[in-house]
Amino acid sequence: MSHSFVLASLASDRFPMAIFDGAVKGTVLLVVAWVVALVCRRCSAATRHLIWSTATAGLVMLPLATAWLPGWCLPWSVQWLAADPGVDLSRSFATANSVDSMPEEILDARPGDTGSTHSAGGRTLGAAEMREPVEEKDKAVTSAVVWLGRVWLFGAVALLLPTVVGWLSVQHLRRKYMTLASGPVAGRLAELAACYQIRRRVTLWECRSRQVPMTWGVWRPVVVLPTEAATWTRQRLDAVLRHELAHVARYDCLTQWVAQMARALHWFNPLAWHAVTRLRFEQEQACDDLVLAAGHSAADYAEQLLAVTSGRRSSRWAASAALSIGQARRLEHRLRTILDPNLRRSTLSLRQALRALFCGTVLLAPLAALDIGWAAEEPAAKAQAQNGDGDQKLSDDAEGGTKTDGELQRLREARTKVLEIYFRQLDTGKMTEGAIKGMLDALDDPYSEYLSPRQLADFDKQVGGNLVGIGAVLKTEAKEPEGVKIVVVTPLEDSPALKAGVGPDDEILAVDGNPIEGLALSEVIERVVGAKGTVVTLKLRHPGGDDVEIAIMRDQVNLPAIAGLRRGPDGHWDFWLDREHKIGYIHLQQFVPTTAVEMQNILGSLAKQDLHGLVLDLRACPGGMLSVAVEIANSFIAEGLIVSVKGRDKAPQEIKADGKAQFAEVPLVVLIDEQTASAAEVLTGALRQRKHTLLVGVRTFGKGSVQSIVNLGENQGALKLTTAFFQAPGGRNIDRHAEGGEWGIDPSDGSYVPLDAQQAARLDKFRRQRAVVRKSDAATLSDLTPEAVREQLSDPQLAAGLKALLARLKTGEFVAVGEPLPAEKPDGRREKLKAQQEALLKELRRLESELKVLDKSYELPTR
Q1: Burial readout 238-268 (b: 16 or more C-beta within 10 A, e: otherwise)
Q2: Is 670 helix (H, G, I), strand (E, B) or coil?
Q3: DSSP conformation letters of 535-572
Q4: Strand extents, DSSP E, 186-260
Q5: Residues 6+ apart with CB under 8 A from 128
């Protein structure tokens, strides 16, 4: 069993359920055993021993019986989990059914256009990806589950360890034993074994280091006597041998091992410890009763037992795996029991044992079949009934349940017919995935989809920050005279690739000594990425024509979240747009966990240099984590509403400013376009209400819906479902698919600055060029005027924003820098579809080039 499998088992949502289920059922079983033993307190020790041995055996059999027997459900409300019905303990994402418990870590983003540029850190770069985060609260639940499993496993192993060590101790003592196959002691042992009707072969050993008689083994039992047993009187020898053979005849070793296993599985339950203690005591007393029933007087037997154990050393570890005749520190109560003339000392018949076994099975079977689980929220019908429409709602729900049953029956019937009649064997897994995708397609929601187990695993790595690689963006280029080549677009800042000397436009020739000619981009990336701390060797060809080999140690990759307008001489971003007028520039590229802290550091650095105004560029930002957007908004908004989240049939949940705004008075120009989406729209909508803010550009994308990840079970994938919508201050829906005629965030009136196709293409080219990390010979960066921004950077929107901000610093008011808002506000859909078309054509041309090289059919795998 691998370490990863153990961790996966401990993190599974079934594991805490199994512990909870076993704890409840085990407690019920032990309580019943305790009550029955209390009722039978005047019965013989053999009867009480049978009760406790049946209970401990039931504890061991419960998990197997629960898994094997068909069960019926008994909902069991557990408050600490019922409060979060959407929590999935195997993978804690945002709740799917409750907006009131909306996490501060919800990620949302718009769908992007998948291009041919990839990062060797393990994700697609270029257009935006949809990603959602793990909730902080649910992370704590998942962590608690994993630690619960580890604590339980540690306790179980710790309780089983003495038994294992005892068995090893017995095996070690084996070398000191001497088998007695003949002689008076061996002869007497054979006579008594026949008397007890023991058909198994009982071996008699003599040991010098063993002072107290001992028995172990089930199918090949062994009786160990000290060397001095040869000098014992016949009465003492007879009493000791009868006691040890009583253990053999009753299979007490097996009972004892099962009891120790039960205690290990339920070590957290005090009743399990009590059961093992009582079983051990009743076990010895039952053997004592057999000796007394053979004709030994109670006083003589007590005297012999005291003489055999008093002042004698017993093996500490061997006693965990074997049965010792007695220990001096526990002998007093036992001797009192032997000398008590009022106790019943009858033995059990086979019929009585079978009757007890039947009763135990009758109790164990329904208990194991009972499905004890934690209940979630009350059904919607019950909640609606409490709101006043009880009878009608319940009736509607009943009709809906009948209709749902019919639809499910139709689906099952269709699946059965396809499997029976279709002309070839089918992959039922693909059929199930297709059915799920079909259901989600019927929602007519572009953001609800099914994630396969592999997609979900990749998704977990991305949202969990587990991206490991060399930190380089790769792409394919045409190669003369024909074919394609893999080149480095740019290493990422502070990445292993940059530190190792990888530069822009380097061509990759080989990975770890293996040429990559003829490989697709995805195949090259799979060879480049790997486990953290491992080394990959790349053979590169620099733009000058020199071939070099570079060894790079893979490490955590920090994906770019914030960019400046230009890079300084050291290759790092310069966040000043106009140093003379103290105007800064920050481009938020995505809202990830580190964005807010990085933003605060940049703002703090600019503030120390007397920041007067800021251009916040949210163009082409796909969004990200809601909590990050709220945190950034709190830096600029002193009071008021930031955003509200509205779910189905629930009042909006309002998120307000915390009143700690450090930059509430800083004039702010926010650049937005048709690719500003999701959390970026949340931030834009919040800043719009601020009197020191001007929005420049065009209407945003209109992706204001909340998607929650709902796990379908271990290795079964997950559903990404829309569960709520964002509303900007004022009640306007951000999402274009929500109810209402208006959506998205519009620029300020008089600041509508659209781009034509040529301007958008030039701006996109400039963005790709500025993303390249390279050092410059320039000592300083010159300030930019609005005219220079328009001409040199081909960015009319930034030029307009800079112009408005300069006027605000000079006159105290923003000036109109664009057109009035059009009556029919275009949503940019045509431009977006055009861009998607160009991206697809580009991808087709690349595939055609690869096909010429490979001279065979090849399909680029998607992830």
Answers
A1: bbbbbbbbbbbbbebbebbbbbbbbbbbbbe
A2: strand
A3: EEEEEEE-TTS-EEEEEEE-EE-----EE-SEE-TTSS
A4: 203-207, 214-216, 222-226
A5: 109, 110, 111, 112, 590, 620, 621, 622, 623, 675, 677
In contact, 237 and 188? CB cutoff 8 Å: yes
For the segment 79-101, what is each residue's pLDDT rounded down to a tens digit? 333 333 333 333 332 333 333 33
Do the beta carbons of residue 415 and residue 409 sit within 8 Å? no
Long-range pairs of 733-741 with CB within 8 A, sequence gap ≥ 24: 733/704, 734/681, 734/682, 734/685, 734/700, 734/702, 734/703, 734/704, 735/702, 735/703, 735/704, 735/705, 736/702, 736/703, 736/827, 737/445, 737/446, 737/702, 737/705, 738/704, 738/705
C-alpha pair distances (Å), 383 with each of 101, 398, 650, 725 = 17, 15, 12, 22
pTM for the whole thing? 0.54
Give the residue extent of every domain in the chain. Answer: 154-269+277-341, 562-827
* Residue 552 to residue 479: CA distance in whole angstroms: 26
The dihedrals phi and psi of 836, each to the nearest 5 degrees, come to: -65, -40
Contact 707, 720 (CB under 8 A): yes
Show the tokens assigned to 523: 């195949």
- What b/e sequence results for 723-736 when a residue is b if at least 16 CB atoms lie within 10 Å of its CB, and e otherwise? bbbbbbbeebbbbb
Instruction: Judge contact between 682 and 642, C-beta under 8 A.
Output: yes
| DSSP character at residue 378 | P
Q: What HEC string does 719-743 produce?
A: EEEEEEEEECCCCCECCCCCCCCCC
pLDDT in tens, 591-613: 888 899 999 999 999 999 999 99
What are the distances in angstroms from CA 653 to CA 66, 136, 646? Answer: 42, 18, 6
* CA gap 557, 592 in Å, rounded: 13
387, pLDDT greater than 80 = no
Is pLDDT of 792 > 60?
yes
Count of CB atoms situated within 10 Å of the CB of 390: 13
Q: How far is CA 413 from CA 244, 332, 408, 419, in A?
A: 65, 72, 8, 10
Strands 718-727 and 641-647 turn out to be: antiparallel
SS3 category, 783: coil
Pairing of strands 222-226, 214-216: antiparallel
Number of H helices, E strands in the chain: 26, 32
CA atoms within a 13 Å half-sphere pointing along the CA-CB vector of 730: 15
C-beta separation of 491 from 120 below 8 A: no
Phi, psi dihedral angles at 419 (to 5 degrees): -65, -30
Domain 562-827: give its CATH code.
Answer: 3.90.226.10
The pair of three-digit structure tokens given for residue 184, joined into one six-digit string? 């008076």
**Segment 511-559, tens digit of pLDDT:** 999 999 888 888 898 899 888 899 999 999 988 778 999 999 999 887 7
30 and 272 in contact (C-beta within 8 Å)?
yes
d(CA 242, CA 223): 11
Residue in 103, 135, 129 with CA at minimum distance from that of residue 115: 129
Kindly report whether the peptide bond that precedes residue 341 is cis, defined as omega within 30 degrees of 0: no
| N- to C-terminal Cα separation, the chain | 29
Do residues 589 and 600 make contact, with C-beta atoms less than 8 angstroms apart? no
Greatest C-alpha distance within the chain: 119
Q: Return d(Cα 700, Cα 726) in angstroms, integer.
A: 14
CA 376/CA 79 separation, integer angstroms: 9
The torsion defined by the Cα of 725, 653, 92 and 714, in degrees rounded to 10, comes to -50
- Encoding tokens for residue 627? 């909590």
Q: Are 627 and 104 in contact (CB under 8 A)?
A: yes
Closest CA relative to residue 713, chosen from 3, 1, 8, 147: 8
d(CA 371, CA 766): 62
Residue 572 has pLDDT above 70, yes or no: yes
